[in-house]
Amino acid sequence: MAPVLRHIDSTFRRNASAVYLVGILQFIFLPSLVPDTVFWTTASKVTVIVAATYFLWWAAGFERIILLGIGLGVMVVVGAMGLTGVLLVRVAEILTALLLLYSLYWLFRTIARSGPVSRDTIIAAVVGYLALGSISRILLFLLEEEHPGSFVLASDPGIAPDLLYFSFVTLTTLGYGDVVPTTEVARSLAVWIALAGQLYLTIVIALLVGRYLAGSVPGTDDRTRDRVG
To answer: Cα dist. 32→36, 52, 165, 171 in Å?
Structure first.
């Protein structure tokens, strides 16, 4: 029985990053594919929270019980979004951002740990970048909620922008110019998001290259030799 349980534990642990990847992809793309309703918005957020909590459950070790409680608490708050006022919506967004931020820390630990570059390492790097963009979207949303008009579409100043789109455009430093920050705080936040995106890529690439080279050094054993898969 013990070997079977160990195999199940190893399987779930191995696929935790992949589950998180699926959850965060639907969080990014689902809103553009379905009607903009409270149900679909809430379902999308609950799904990414479940995926993040699942990843943290297997990544955080002894802290998993506390993290599960935090994840469930955030889910309860998000689930009540459609029945309450603006304040609870903001609280839900903040708690979601904190959960994603904490998961980003553990994703970094997954990338930086010793050993060969693996499928899990690459998935963690991708999820980390997507999580960073999602956190940025929440910060932009909170700013727009607190100070309406902080962002406008260049073609129509009266229309609120798609903040998720603006978040990733800024994170990747594309800067199309169709969404414009109009206040000092909004511009400062855009600068920090752009810097965070570049620093993430620089640090993660350095870590992955370092692990790749470490696994390619002659004389290393099979456990440290580079492999992807």
So the answer is: 8, 21, 10, 19
Tell me the whole-structure pTM to 2 decimals.
0.78
CA 50/CA 168 separation, integer angstroms? 23
Which residue type, as a one-letter code, is found at position 21?
L
pLDDT tens string 45-82: 888 888 887 888 777 765 665 666 666 666 666 655 55
Closest residue by Cα to residue 143 from 185, 97, 84, 86: 185
pLDDT band at 195 (very low <50, low <70, confident <90, very high): very high
CA–CA dist 182, 79 (Å, integer) = 32
Q: Is the dihedral of CA 126, 127, 130, 131 positive or negative?
A: negative
Q: What is the 3-state secondary structure (H, E, C) of the chain?
A: CHHHHHHHHHHHHHCHHHHHHHHHHHHHHHHHHCCCCHHHHHHHHHHHHHHHHHHHHHHCHHHHHHHHHHHHHHHHHHHCHHHCCHHHHHHHHHHHHHHHHHHHHHHHHHHHCCCCCCHHHHHHHHHHHHHHHHHHHHHHHHHHHHCCCCEEECCECCCCCCHHHHHHHHHCCCCCCCEEECCHHHHHHHHHHHHHHHHHHHHHHHHHHHHHHHHHCCCCCCCCCCCCC
